[in-house]
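Let's sit down with a protein and look at its sequence and fold side by side. Once you have written the record down, we can walk along the chain together.
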Amino acid sequence: MKTSYIFLSFFIPVLLTSQAIAGPPGFGKGKGHGPMGGGDFRGVIHELFAAHEDFDRKVVLTENGYRATTTSAKPETAKLLQKHVSQMESRLDGGFGVRHWDPAFAELREHYDDIEVKLTNIKGGVAVTVTGKTPAAVKVAQNHAKIVSGFVERGHTEAQKEHARALK
């Protein structure tokens, strides 16, 4: 009996620790300690979905991609948006994806190396210029811009949906 207790008291903490270390990105490492310092990106995005009516988004599709500005008059919401966009850029630059179950986001990850993103924090939010390096990447980037606009318009309702890939 003593051997079983010693065995369990040693291996349970080892097992729990290894799960925390080996868990999927953003899990088990505490706030701010996930891959690329991403922390709780899921919590941030859900706060943004809840506050979607606080945002003003303008998108201009260009020949090679798009330009967008997304702002909020509420400083705390604007900072949350800036944090989210930075987190997503870090994840994608690091080879990680988001919304793996959503075909359009899987497609974005597949073409991300052919997409150039210039992100600027501005008063009240962010400005982004996205350029596709290939015709396919342009379509994927523009599709992403439309989907994000849907998130801003409809929040959680839009977040529950799967979105079509831009390329057939």
User: Anything to note?
Assistant: Confidence is low (pLDDT under 50) at residues 3-38. Strands lie at 55-62, 65-72, 115-122, 125-132.
